[in-house]
Request: fold
Amino acid sequence: MISIIVSTYRKQYYEQLVQSIADTIGNIPYELVPIENHGEFSISKAYNLAAAKAKYPYLCFVHEDVVFETDNWGNIICEAFKKEIEIGAIGIAGGYKMYLPTGWGSGIDGWDQAHLYHFYGTDKTLIHAYPVTGSKVNVLDGVLIFTPRKVWEEFLFDETVEGFHFYDIDYTYRVSRKYKIRILDSLLITHFSSGNFGKQWMLACIDYHRSKKELFNAIPITKHEVSQIRNFYYSFSQPGMFTTKTFYKIRYVMALGIDTHSWKSALRFIIVNPFTIRYLRKLRLI
Reply:
């Protein structure tokens, strides 16, 4: 019932994932459709190539550095799709995305949803963020995306989205304009990475939103929400952001923008580096 598609280049992670799937998916038919990818293809192209070979009605796109923590998750996913035929994609993390050059997270209460373990260095941390009832989700994190094959055939991954970022936001947002997007807290995984939001992510973010600026324009957002999102990203302490060279941080600030409520956090974001963080904290400047 499920074709599991993996873009892989690290044997040890892939073998760990394969064993995890066998141990947890439950008693349903499934197949593995790996595509070896040492940078020859973008994620979008790799996923489209592999999905074209898949034989089952539900597709699972998953990163190789993942293990599943929930038993019988294959049946959970199949039942979710059967129960709500309007669902176009299911994941374990995502949020409400608008036009600003950001990832799926917003930092706004009720907009972000996540349910997974992340490794930050050697620390395994449960990320559990669930919003108020009725909140919207229009994009998913690409660490794990389930989608019916017929929905993938309708939308495909956009192969003009190059590299390894924003393929997930692009696909799931386009799907969300016709189908429902769901995040399940009954499914739990461990992801052996927290991502990297450094130079490559920033440049990809700027390029993607420049090329797709019309895609998100219809989503309503207030000035206060814009300020909240800017402050969230300028204070974002994910790997790579603070250590990125100042030139690229300035480019990102120019793309994301500044207002009267976010200029201080934008300035801190630009000037802070690993050697000054401790000193500036002592001075209570950050």
Q: What stands out?
A: The radius of gyration is 19 Å. The CA atoms of residues 118 and 124 lie 6 Å apart. The longest strand covers residues 112-120.
